[in-house]
Every structure is written in C-alpha cells, then in structure tokens.
Batch of 2 targets.
Target 1
Amino acid sequence: MILSEGIAGQEAQIIALFEATFAASEGASEGAVIGDLVRGLLSKTPSEDIYVFTAHDTPHDTAHDKDRLIGGAIFSRLVYAEDPRSVFILSPMAVASPRQGQGVGQALLRHALTKLRDAGVDVAITYGDPAFYGKIGFEPLDPERVAAPLPLSMPIGWIGQSLTETPLVALTGACSCVEALNDPSIW
Ligand SMILES: CC(C)(COP(=O)(O)OP(=O)(O)OC[C@H]1O[C@@H](n2cnc3c(N)ncnc32)[C@H](O)[C@@H]1OP(=O)(O)O)[C@@H](O)C(=O)NCCC(=O)NCCS
C-alpha cells in the first residue's frame, strides 16, 4: 500500500471512491450526497485551505497491473475568529468497501496527521464515529468551547485533537468552514 498527499489528476477517481463507498454503507442517495460534497471540496476550495490524502494498492498488493485507489481523507480549513491557531477538519473519509476493517483507515489517518503536523497545523477536528476516530487520538469536544461552524445534529460526533504539545481545551471565537462544507444538511 502507498500513502500519498495531493490530488495529481485523480479528481474523478476520488469522487467515485467516496460515492461508491457511501452508497454501499449508507445507500445510493447518501452516496450521491457525499460524491457531490467531495466534488465541491475539490473544485471550490483554495489550495491553501485543503489537504487530500490517499491510499493505493500497488500491483504488488493485488492481481491488477496498476495502482488502485482504496482510501481517501479530505481535510479543509476551519477559521476561529479570535484564535490564531491553524485548524483543519477531516470530512469526509472513505476506505473502499472490500478493504475496510484491515487497518487502511487508521494507517491513512496516522500518515495524514503526521503530514499536517509537519506542515504546521495545530489542531485536527472531525465529525464522525468516536469508536473509530478514537483509535487515532480524537477525543470528544465541548461545542461550547470549540464551536462548530453549523449546528450539529449529532454532537457526540464532534471530536478533535491537538497536533502540538498544547492541549486542545478551547478555540476562541466563531467558527467558519470552507464553502463546500457550509451546508446544514451535512451537519
Ligand atoms: C470508517 C472507515 C473510514 C474506517 O476505515 P477502515 O480501514 O475500515 O478502518 P480500520 O480497519 O483502520 O480500523 C477499523 C477499527 O475501528 C473499529 N471501528 C469502530 N467503529 C468503526 C466504524 N464506524 N467503521 C469502521 N471501523 C470501526 C473497528 O472495530 C476496527 O477495530 P480493530 O482494529 O480493533 O478491529 C471505513 O470503514 C469507511 O470508509 N466506512 C464507510 C464510510 C464512512 O463511514 N466514513 C467515515 C465517515 S466520514
């Protein structure tokens, strides 16, 4: 397996991976919603506000003769109006259905968090299942102290971690996200 950063002309494959993975796990309409979300993130987000990390199987791993995309994790910038720290949110993330439950997701996220830390990102946040993300260091956040950009339908999924030695206790000020995430239906 190869873990990489960047899109490198793979927009269509990345969108297709997210659409197929969420269609398989949550139904066709959710697959379409997440596919559109990823299309929007990749096309509308300024390059300094987004990181895309991917996992590929190589011919060595499979019977195929080309690398195959098996995982993706998209981070985009959150801005806290009165806080100078660099904050990114992971949303969404997917591992291809036949490769789930084999450690790909955890390996991809560990790689991503190391790269973000090296790039000077202070805080990583996500909005998802604490049972999975807790394995990679995400802990519950108090929305009163770390605001979300839009109202949360499942506050239990609001989780994050510091990438520095300073504990993540609070981020000050109102929170805003990139345009593609600024949609109440996905929160
Ligand atoms: C969630 C997801 C990204 C995890 O990636 P993965 O490669 O399957 O996960 P890993 O194999 O690295 O880790 C799985 C571990 O987390 C645990 N886990 C807890 N909740 C889980 C969940 N909702 N999904 C998958 N694993 C979960 C598993 O039991 C397993 O634990 P173990 O290693 O002790 O056996 C992947 O399953 C996926 O794409 N699911 C469908 C889409 C989705 O829900 N995306 C996340 C929301 S944005």
Target 2
Amino acid sequence: MERRDFVSNIGLTLALACTAGLAACSKGGNDNTPPVPPPGGGTTNKLTLNLGSDLLNPGDFKISNGVIIIRTGTGNTAAAFTALSSTCTHQGCTVANYNNASKLIECNAPCGHGSRFTATGAVNTGPAGNPLTAYTVKVDGNSLTVS
Ligand code: FES
C-alpha cells in the first residue's frame, strides 16, 4: 500500500469511528426526555410479571425496577395487588421488605432509617414524611403490568 492510500484509509477509518462515537454518545447519559411509547400507542410498563409463577400468595412481594409490588388479596385481578415506588421518600434508599405480619413496607438498615409505610404507600412511621408514589396495576389473565 502506498503512503497516500494508507493516509486516505486512516482518515476514512477515523471519520467512521468519530461518527459512531458521536451517535453512541447522543443515546446515553442523563437524558430527561420521556420514554417513547411502543408502537400501537401503548404505555411503557415499569414491570411485567407472570402470575402463573410470581406473587402466588397474599403477602408475597417483589422489588424490581424501582417498584415494590405486593399481593394484598386473592385472585388475579388488579384489586388484589398494590404497586408503589420502592424509593423511600426519606433519603431515597430502596425499601427492603414487606412485612406480611404487620402489613407494613419497611425501609431498614443498612441504608434505611426505619421508616414504615402502609400497603397503600402512606407513612406509618417516620422519619419519612411523604407517601410512596402509587403506580397503576393491570391484570390480563396471568399477565400483570405496572405502569
Ligand atoms: S431512606 Fe428510608 S428511612 Fe431513611
């Protein structure tokens, strides 16, 4: 390869690498634009569960993707579940547990400072001063979605 061809190839390679790098950077970072709904006009779900294997019994709960979802009743209907933000309103720790005996959501050590919330998200015990954000639960057969 002649020197001129070599320099030309290097220039083209660098141009492609820079273009790819800029494109990658434009998709990352702290983008505050809202999520794009999926085709067909649906909503972006925070969580999807299979009720054939998840949350089978009252008191069962799951913490995932910023959500705590609790089965509070029987049957596969939306009314049998509550979905809340799992981010404690005190200092932003993820809540640790749903205590089925006390029926309270617990924000425990090492991060939490002992706040307790009811299954509706209301503050039961501080130091948290504000409720957990409630989300919408939909059930279709064995498919549960939180949005
Ligand atoms: S972060 Fe939950 S009690 Fe402090």
